[in-house]
Design goal:
211 residues, 11 helices, 0% strand
């Protein structure tokens, strides 16, 4: 064997011995490498997580883009005098990390139905609209309309700047222990068709606030 081959083998053996020798320096290198790998993994995981929390991601599926997204664009949550717009994840994805992860796990069921084509046509979507809406309403009610309160904090409301009828209804609702979704169904998407109603689905949504 040549001298160069011998020296390479010797270097490899020394490096291997250094890494596996229970010395403080070897363990320091391993710990440092673990920290770097962990940071890269965690950063990549959160980057991918936040990528799925964008409106562009939500409407990348034609089921959302062609059905509920146009409805949102006709409401006050889309255009208003204050210029504050609520996007899909603002209402449907929790801000707290643990609840956000829970929601992402639940979304795997939506991926399954995407593959199965459960609502891949307008007719199929309308047939399931009530079921989908009731699921969202139940989730919001169970969390005391948590995502609504990210923007609409009770402590920040000024009843004197509301219409008298609205202010009274709000106060009565608070006293009765109601939550936002109890009274504001159809605030961002058209209401489902009543199963006993043979007419077209209810198309009323909140009108955009006048400029």
């Amino acid at each position: 064997m040549t001298d160069s081959g011998t020296s390479k083998n010797a270097w490899f053996k020394r490096a291997w011995s250094f890494l596996w020798r229970p010395s403080s320096m070897a363990w320091s290198v391993l710990v440092a490498a673990g920290v770097v790998i962990g940071v890269l993994f965690w950063g990549g995981f959160n980057w991918a997580l936040e990528l799925t929390n964008t409106e562009s991601f939500c409407i990348s599926c034609h089921e959302m883009r062609d059905n509920v997204y146009p409805e949102l664009q006709r409401t006050i949550h889309w255009a208003n005098r204050s210029g504050v717009r609520a996007s899909c994840p603002d209402c449907h994805v929790p801000h707290p990390w643990i609840y956000k992860i829970k929601r992402k796990i639940e979304a795997s069921n939506e991926v399954l139905h995407k593959i199965l084509g459960t609502i891949d046509t307008r007719e199929k979507f309308e047939a399931h609209r009530l079921e989908l809406a009731e699921h969202v309403w139940a989730t919001m009610k169970s969390t005391d309309s948590r995502e609504c309160r990210n923007c609409h904090a009770v402590q920040s409301m000024d009843p004197h700047k509301q219409k008298p009828e609205a202010a009274k209804m709000m106060q009565d609702g608070f006293k009765a222990g109601l939550t936002c979704i109890d009274c504001h169904k159809g605030i961002a998407h058209q209401l489902p068709k009543d199963p006993d109603d043979t007419d077209e689905p209810e198309k009323k949504t909140d009108e955009p606030e006048k400029k």
